[in-house]
């Protein structure tokens, strides 16, 4: 009887575990699937509610309204450019700084670390930041997207903590072989830091991709520098202000009524358009993301 009970325990545990995981997956995926269904549903029908996982009246009018202006394609490539350039430069400079402050022989590592960490607690504010960008001649310049965020205190701490977990013998062996700091950094430290660098790259890339406020403050007067998120924000604002088109709503043509777009439907389409690129990239970085967060968050 006892042997039979012991055999049932793994079955019960696995069944319970599977039910819990399926429930968590449903809860996690439902908001995205619901947004996807709303984005493909007719706008006037969406106002009635009751859209869950499947559109009631299929339409692509919401996406046509999003891409109708023609400015989103150029804004998309501006967002891609700022994300790629800012991520690469931020990783390079932050990792070099992290390596410097992780070395015990660097006598100023504690004061430098303290100064960098203080930036996490104190902020000059929006107006001083604007005047700083103006004095640096970065207003209406592409580099206003890149230069202000090159060094992140949080990312520096994560990378530095990871570097401090690396065996000291590797660096000492490189020094014995005659390698300098740059050779040690590029040949030994960087290859070993791939997990944490992928983690930080995801942080920086997501932040750059989702950013629109810096465009609004520093580059809104130059259309060629407009980003995808800023264009989507303007589209959502205009849709919310207009709320609906009375001429279409009062039309006797049922097809015209079905082609209406509403703030709710536009919002859903915008959410899908903005999130798809990140969803495509994330699976390739997921294993590095989890591994890097585990090793870079706690110092042994």
From TrEMBL:
It comes from the Bacteria. Its main location: membrane. GO terms for cellular component: plasma membrane. The chain crosses the membrane at residues 12-33, 76-100, 112-131, 143-163, 184-206, 264-285. It is found in: Cell membrane. The keyword Transmembrane applies. It is a multi-pass membrane protein. SUPFAM superfamilies: MetI-like. Keywords: Cell membrane, Membrane, Transmembrane, Transmembrane helix, Transport. One of its GO terms (biological process) is transmembrane transport. Belongs to the binding-protein-dependent transport system permease family. This is Carbohydrate ABC transporter membrane protein 2 (CUT1 family).
